[in-house]
Amino acid sequence: MFQLVTSANVACGFHAGDPVTMLDSCRAAYELDVTVGAHVGYRDMAGFGRRSLDMSFDELFGDVLYQLGALDGVAHAVGASVDFVKPHGALYDTLTDDAEQASALVAAVNAYDPGLPILGFPGSELLKQAKEAGHPVFTEAFADRAYFADGSLVPLSREDAILHDVDTIVERAVRLATKGEVVAIDGSVVTIQPDSLRLQGGSPGAVETAARIRAGLEAAGVGLESFA
């Protein structure tokens, strides 16, 4: 996968990952000139970070700070660096509209590195607060996730949340990159101007899908480089 992407969200040990996995990932990213992002999440290894947790400001602040420090330390040991932050799973969803948890994450990132870019969902509370705090902010779109007409994602609890037809995914990726739009589940067209295209790395056939997407983007004349 590292040979195909320009940026990689690396789990920091709370929802997935461990020191060896982080070392291997950061080493591969450095060798292949892939930008490393801290994929911070709730402390929920059993639930893969996909269960919402009611956390206080201090609890989430500390957990995000801990994850940033862990991955950044590992990255520096192999010559790499953490160049952006991207929340994972339920935390990502919560930060769409939860002002208190968004403020905790932004405060933690700001305490660690005031200039660290933050990647998130367009129009989210997270990106609003991150921008107000002076962080570079970037938006992403999902090539293999279904969208509602209002631009929100279809929840993973639904069977139609993830697309599986590779041809359709490639077509969507190219359309997002070249036209800034995606077709919602009701057939309407949603306008999105993403800085990054995200893939579900754990999906079956993810590497093959990524290869097809990259080939499709290159064939469409889309230049590929890290946003951060």
3D architecture notes:
With 228 residues, this protein is of the alpha/beta class. 39% of the residues lie in helices and 14% in strands. The chain contains seven helices and eight strands. The chain has helices spanning 19-31, 57-77, 89-94, 99-112, 125-132, 166-179, 206-219; strands at 7-11, 35-39, 82-85, 118-120, 137-142, 181-183, 189-191, 196-198. The protein has a three-stranded parallel beta sheet with strand order 1-2-3, covered by helices on one side. Strands 4-5-8 form a three-stranded parallel beta sheet. The radius of gyration is 17 Å and the shape is globular. 39% of the residues are buried. The model has no long low-confidence stretch (mean pLDDT 96).
Tell me the Rg in angstroms.
Answer: 17 Å
Write down the overall mean pLDDT: 96
Low-confidence stretches: none
Order of helices and strands: EHEHEHHEHEHEEEH
Distance between the ends: 19 Å
Overall morphology:
globular
Number of helical segments with 4 or more residues: 7
Largest sheet: 3 strands, parallel
Helix and strand content put the structural class at: alpha/beta
Helix content: 25-40%
Strand content of the residues, in percent? 5-15%
The count of strands amounts to: 8
Q: Walk across the major sheet and give the strand order.
A: 1-2-3
InterPro entries: Glyco_hydro/deAcase_b/a-brl (IPR011330), LamB/YcsF/PxpA-like (IPR005501)
Pfam families: LamB_YcsF (PF03746)
Organism: Arthrobacter liuii
Protein name: UPF0271 protein
